[in-house]
Design brief:
This protein has 2 domains: 2-105, no CATH class; 109-209, Alpha-Beta Plaits, CATH 3.30.70.260. Strands 1, 2, 3, 4 and 5 form a 5-stranded antiparallel β-sheet that branches. Strands 7-8-6-9 form a 4-stranded antiparallel β-sheet. The chain is globular. 37% of the residues lie in helices and 28% in strands. The protein has 213 residues and is α+β, with helices and mostly antiparallel strands. Strand 7 (159-165) and strand 8 form a beta hairpin. The longest helix is centred in the middle third of the chain and has 25 residues, at 128-152.
Length: 213
């Protein structure tokens, strides 16, 4: 029996509704020591991959969002599939202490995302040399903005990650669940460089701050 692993939470997590996962399979909660796993089971793992993958990924992340409403979770990427109960049990036995430590660390934390984009970064204009110069100028403006935002949010943010995207920068902030509104209010008043667009999303599970192996 193949097993699709969505996430891990503390054993005492309370999820109020029954959940349906990828391909309509029910989500099963199983407590193993200090942990609770949320999984779906199917005799044929290909059923989770046969449909349009984007739709399957959205179903997967909907499950993560529902569990995350109740507690901190360790989210897994789609698809994380184990071939049998025994394989999953072996994985949990090997990493139970690590997962429990991460859940303790991130108990009251969430991830907020700041996405700063500019149309000029995604679409080349003019010659190659001109485009590269324009891109460098725009990226410097992004970096100044990102640095300034990080400084303004320093009293709220416990950790900060960023990575470049094809049309800008994605920054990830680790903040307390109880400070999300304050985070949004600060970002609402942050000056944005001319021509740029800023999108704030979250709260999300702390996926950018959990190293998965």
């Amino acid at each position: 029996m193949a097993i699709l692993l969505y996430c891990i939470a503390k054993h005492d997590v309370q999820v109020r509704t029954s959940l349906t996962g990828v391909a309509g399979d029910p989500v099963v909660r199983v407590e193993t020591g200090p942990l609770a796993t949320f999984t779906s089971r199917n005799a044929d793992s290909a059923v989770w991959l046969r449909s349009e993958l984007r739709a399957s990924a959205l179903e997967f992340h909907r499950v993560l969002s529902e569990v995350f409403k109740s507690a901190a979770i360790i989210p897994f990427r789609f698809p994380t599939i184990f071939e049998s109960e025994e394989q999953l049990a072996e994985h949990l036995q090997e990493r139970s202490s690590e997962y429990n430590g991460l859940l303790e660390k991130f108990t009251d934390m969430v991830q907020m995302e700041i996405r700063l984009t500019h149309p000029g970064l995604g679409t080349p204009s003019g010659s190659g040399t001109e485009y590269l110069k324009e891109r460098q100028t725009l990226m410097r403006a992004i970096e100044r903005f990102e640095s300034g935002v990080h400084a303004v949010l320093s009293s709220l943010v416990k950790d900060w990650r960023q990575r470049a995207s094809k049309d800008g920068v994605r920054a990830f902030a680790l903040v307390g669940r109880d400070r999300v509104l304050e985070f949004r209010n600060i970002m609402r008043n942050a000056p944005v460089p001319d021509g740029f667009n800023v999108r704030i999303t979250g709260p999300w599970p702390v996926s950018e701050f959990v190293e998965q192996r």
